[in-house]
Amino acid sequence: MKNASRYFTRSAIGGLVIGMTGLLAGHADAACELKLGVIGTLSGPAAQWGLALKGAVDYVAAEYNAQGGIQVGNEKCQVAVTAFDGKYTAEGAAAGANAMVSQGVKFIIGPIGSPEMTGLKPIALRNNLLVMGDSYAKNAIGPQWPLVFHSGPGPSGWADPIVKVAKAKFGIKKVVIVAPNDQGGTDIASVDAVAYKNNGIAATEEYYQRGTANFQPIVTRIINMQPDAIDTASSPPGDTGTIAKQLRLAGFQGPIGHLGGPGTEEIARIAGGMDVLKTFYWYEPIVIDEKIQEIAVDYKKAFNADRPENNLFFQWVGAARMVTKAISKAGTISDTKKVAEALRSLPVEDPNLGKGLWIGQEFFGINQELSFPFGIGTIIDGKMQPIIKQAAATGK
Amino acid sequence: MNEFVSAGLIGVSLGAQYALLALGFTLIFGILGVVNFAHGGFYVVGGYIAYGFVSHFGVPYVLAVVIAALLTGAIGYFFELFIVERLVEDDLATLMLTLGLYLVMSTGVLVAFGPESPQFEFPVSGTLQIGAFHLPIENIVVFVVCLLAIAAVYILLYRTDFGRALRALADDRQVAAAQGLRPRLLFPLAFGVACGLAGLTGALVTPILSLAPHVGDPVLATSFLIVILGGLGSVGGATVAAFLVGLVEAYSSVYLGGSKGALALFVLVLIVLVVRPTGLFGREVRGA
Q: Is B210's CB within 8 Å of A238's CB?
């Protein structure tokens, strides 16, 4: 009798727990929440790029939440952000994508590096995830991945105008392009090399093992080739800073380029200052004007902290806003195909970044690459020059 | 010819840095029988301690380097005394413990200082130009300090009672203990010295390369490769292998390029291990 009573009590408690759980689950279902996944490099030498991405998505989520959420159909949904460190590796991004799928995330902003994009795409394809990534790989997007979009053009869009400016300013006749020996390096360096060659500059590609800490031997090899300029392509800011420092210590006086992701502030910090960089040119994804500066001011208000240092932050704000606008237009937080359709139909326009274009058909075979106006940065005699504004790349 | 000499100078300079790192790693294995996976972590923490004291407290760099070596040594001492010592006979447990410590250290640094590299400059800069050679002054200073530190380790091990005791424990722990040597007293000290060496290297080298929470990863890999090549636990082997690795890395990178250079190094290690599975100076069986 005593056992039966104990059994009854336990069953009653168990039933109550299950009932409460169901009630809570029902309540959770009722509250609409849009989950945005962020997969990017949040540690290691390319962390600056990932922090810019995460900061941008956090900012866009906060923008919506401050207005009570994002309008999706007849309801307003809160926007939540969940982030995963892809560590600039294919396996890291793949693990991140699987983790996102298990959390019910349908939209991924990121990743950044080509190895990450390569690891993520098969999982995105299998699970119908909509991806807005920023890899500069030659196959970053393509017709076989209709739900994968590009947040900004790769070197196929901007390398040529930058090379033209660098050639005119510095009189470059021979360049050595140095980059990591994985897809994140080779795909960018080879496209940069074509841009140099098309402008009558002899270009040699030189690769190093990702994870190299001391570049002295490679620097010696490069200097022995007697180039006029050395382009660090998509080498992460951490690596580029060390390379630049060691190049200058080894006596190289020519211009150093960085036709890959931006990060000049961190590069200068590691190299030992603007004076050490001396003559430097790079791709700047956004030209910061008053309108764009408003984002930085709003970010400070929202998070009581400065916006992430890397200027890719602004490009990511534009990209994340485009995705959320498409979600709102499609009226769904689960049907990614419908959202992709809405995204393709949206004009490229941002209240801060201005007007842009959808490009990519010529290089990737699919018009899913966002292109906003961009800039060319130069440092001459250790002094930062005004960024040279360029119209949005057309990809032609 | 200039290229050949330049590569040689770089190789020797790299070798000295690697030797300082590998000595600590091989000391811990040789004496305690522990593979210290936290070695890269002590390098990173050493760098950040020196950076912190220089940039936040205005301490002169030289003093900051000494503080970094002492503090990382103290962390190592207490880690061995309170955690590793209890499980020192269990290879797998100590491996997991040191790996765990590495994760705690690198994540702790990430939380405290952020993932981006700070500006941490060597106090002396400039280049010494001799003919066609450019010798960065900071590299020369680091090279000299590394050589002095390596000499100090050798004196400590081969010219002091403490060193003799450690070598006796490395040879045969039971016999040494029966002779009155006290492993519980000496092991934490040995662990502390080894971690202090890693911290010293971090404080010395990160200003001439870069400082970030992840920079310990390649350090661990390089140290491991060197002690395997030199023979696990062999102090002399680690020193010779460090200079060998530095020279091979320099020459192969200069003449073959960054990718093939890395491959050449691993091929060399593979060949050595096929010919001599115990490494260049390794023994068949560890006594301890």
A: yes
Residue closest to B258 by CA, chosen among A74, A176, A381, A147: A176
- According to CATH, what is the number of the domain A31-152+288-355? 3.40.50.2300
Find the domain containing B104 and state its range. 2-275
Q: Would residue B263 count as lying in a domain?
A: yes
CATH code of the region A155-284+377-390? 3.40.50.2300
CA distance A394 to A390: 11
pLDDT tens digit sequence for B49-86? 999 999 999 999 999 999 999 999 999 999 999 999 98
What ipTM score was computed for the predicted complex, to two decimals? 0.84
Number of separate domains in chain B: 1
B263, closest residue in chain A (CA to CA): A209
A121 CA: distance to closest CA in chain B (Å): 26
> Which residues in chain A touch residue B129, judged by CB atoms under 8 angstroms apart?
251
Residue A325's nearest CA partner among A346, A353, A298, A352 is A346
Separation in Å, CA A138 to CA A109, A282, B147: 19, 20, 47
Sorted by where each begins, the domain ranges of chain A are 31-152+288-355, 155-284+377-390
Say what percent of chain A tops pLDDT 70: 92
Per CB-CB distance under 8 Å, the chain A contacts of B115 are 42-44, 47-48, 51
pLDDT in tens, B207-251: 999 898 989 988 888 888 999 999 888 889 999 999 999 999 999
Residues of A whose CB is below 8 A from B117: 45, 237-238, 241, 266, 269-270
Q: Residue length, chain B? A: 288
